[in-house]
């Protein structure tokens, strides 16, 4: 069997590439940070990428340069994604790190957004191979953004730019000279306009099934947590899933307060209701009631019964732990269409992993487009979530901040106009 690692190793030796020794403490840190992830494939991806980051940090430090980013504070999606890690900051320059276990001679691929999007474009793209068994990393080469653009490469079917290794600069001394003595403005990057200086998550695109990779299905990220809707039914014995008795009781209580049933409504006096009848009754209320709190209660019930039900709007969550000083919390956003082209929005912060309660004094803050405060919710002792609900119109932009002590994470959202 051909040993491609050995072949590549010999090939790299012929190029006189630099190697970076990985120390036991590097493997310990990579193990600690990668163990945060539940999926085994994600753990290994994170493990290799963190080793690559530690190798780059060490290589720069030996040459009196500093990687400004705290590795443990990088967003989780960057660590487990197959994409390069970007943006990283070194001496005023933006750096994009491409790292893998086995980089074959045919070349690499760089996603379009890493080249043409102001938020991700970098002055330098650095390629490092991590050799776990040999306990070392190899700095293969780099390319500047302006040199990359001058090659006028074409995107492949995956939307990435293919780049052969022969198109890289193998001389690492050139990279050091650039980082130490070149002015960052000498390498022109895509300019940030007032709109592009922040990435605005298009919430209305979620209703069309279009999501960015950072936002995950809630049921995948927030597991084994008691449904929020159960708070309204504390007198009933419930398990992790809502019982039919609870749902039926909610429907009966609602129907008592409404006008008499019409012929299309479900008869709730029946001893047993099928799943179809329950769903139909919930959707009827959702589409007819004008009470905002009731609509959200129905949405919560539908999320538990059928998370992908089209009438329940859409919700997604993001893990903020590695951005929030390591505290395991998640931000959930839900959007629910309203009459007259308006949208109901729910923002909620949950504890993650084995944490039952949120850290005391954690804050959820809403900001308008100008950065002015719209609301502020503060977690108390033994709060298992905090939330805020509001209504947004097409064209509205707002931001949500989650902060704890000196750590703050801000996410920006827009209600797109069709």
Word description of this protein:
The chain has 418 residues and is an alpha+beta fold. It folds into 3 domains: 4-194, 3-Layer(aba) Sandwich (Trna Endonuclease, Chain: A, domain 1); 198-217 and 310-418, Macroglobulin (MG2) domain (Immunoglobulin-like); 224-306, no CATH class. Helix content is 28%, strand content 25%. The chain contains 12 helices and 16 strands. It has a 5-stranded mixed beta sheet. Helix 2 packs across helix 3 and helix 11 runs antiparallel to helix 12. The radius of gyration is 26 Å and the shape is elongated. The protein starts with a helix and ends with a strand.
The level-1 CATH class of the largest domain:
Alpha Beta
In the sheet with the most strands, the strands line up as 1-6-5-3-2
The mean pLDDT is 80
Query: In DSSP terms, counting alpha (H) and pi (I) runs of 4 or more, how many helices?
Result: 12
Cα Rg: 26 Å
CATH architecture descriptor name of the largest domain: 3-Layer(aba) Sandwich
Q: Total strand count, please? A: 16
Beginning-to-end CA distance, first to last residue: 56 Å
Write down the CATH topology of the largest domain.
Trna Endonuclease, Chain: A, domain 1
Count of spatially separate domains: 3
Question: What general outline do the C-alpha atoms trace?
Answer: elongated
Output the structural class: alpha+beta
What fraction strand? 25-35%
Low-pLDDT stretches are 230-241, 256-264
What's the main sheet like? Answer: 5 strands, mixed
Instruction: Specify the helix fraction band.
Output: 25-40%
| H/E series | HEHHHEEEHEEHEHEHHHHHEEEEEEEE
